[in-house]
Amino acid sequence: MQLATLRELYVDELRDLYSAENQILKALPKMAKAASSAHLKNAFQEHLEQTKGHVQRLDKIFDELGARAKGKKCRAMEGLIEEGKELLEKDVEPDVLDAGLIAAAQKVEHYEMAGYGCVRTYAKLLGDDQSAELLQETLNEEGETDEKLTELAESTINLKAMHDGQSDEEQKQEIETVGT
Fold first, then answer.
1. What is the pLDDT of residues 63-79, one digit of tens each?
2. Poorest-pLDDT segment among 5-9, 137-141, 146-150, 160-164
């Protein structure tokens, strides 16, 4: 398919995001189930609800454009989700798995933020201010999710993962060493 105009590229990129969001809708419940941290489970479940809203916003934009939402498979998201599945198939300590799930989720968030930033800019250039606002709303939510995941990782989960398999005494010595 030849893309001859910015509008055609815009619709093509929206379809990519639509595919990505629908793939995420299937992956998030599996990630929530695999997480051992209650806070991480909750973060994934909250983002699942947000993602449903992202799909609804995209549906609204496609309706306004008079375009079909389907017709493209987001290969990048397929790859990112496959990487996450590979982690789930390994023998991983629960806290280490949680750290890996956060890493996998943040890769997804960063891909989405890049995509939403581009289509928001295209919408503005094409004079579609209403869609630009909807896309910015989604972009903001993706950024907030990324920040929540970073906070969870840095405040508890990565620290727990660092100490998996260590005795309390070994953990104490390592913390004292890091602090000096």
1. 999 999 988 999 999 99
2. 160-164
Q: Which amino acid is at 175?
A: I
Write down the pTM of the prediction. Answer: 0.88
Where in 4-148 does DSSP place strands (E)? none
Phi, psi (rounded to 5 degrees) for 166: -100, 150
Tokens of 131: 């869609």
SS3 179: helix
Q: In this predicted model, what pLDDT tens digit does every residue of 125-139 receive, in sequence order? A: 999 999 999 999 999
Tokens of 174: 């390592």
Instruction: Find, among 118, 100, 117, 108, the residue nearest to 146 by Cα.
Output: 108
Superfamily of domain 6-165: Ferritin, core subunit, four-helix bundle (1.20.1260.10)
**Sequence-ordered list of residues with C-beta below 8 angstroms from that of 87, at least 6 positions apart, any chain:** 97, 100, 101, 104
Instruction: In whole angstroms, give the CA distance from residue 108 to residue 74.
Output: 12
Up-side HSE of residue 124: CA atoms within 13 Å toward CB?
9
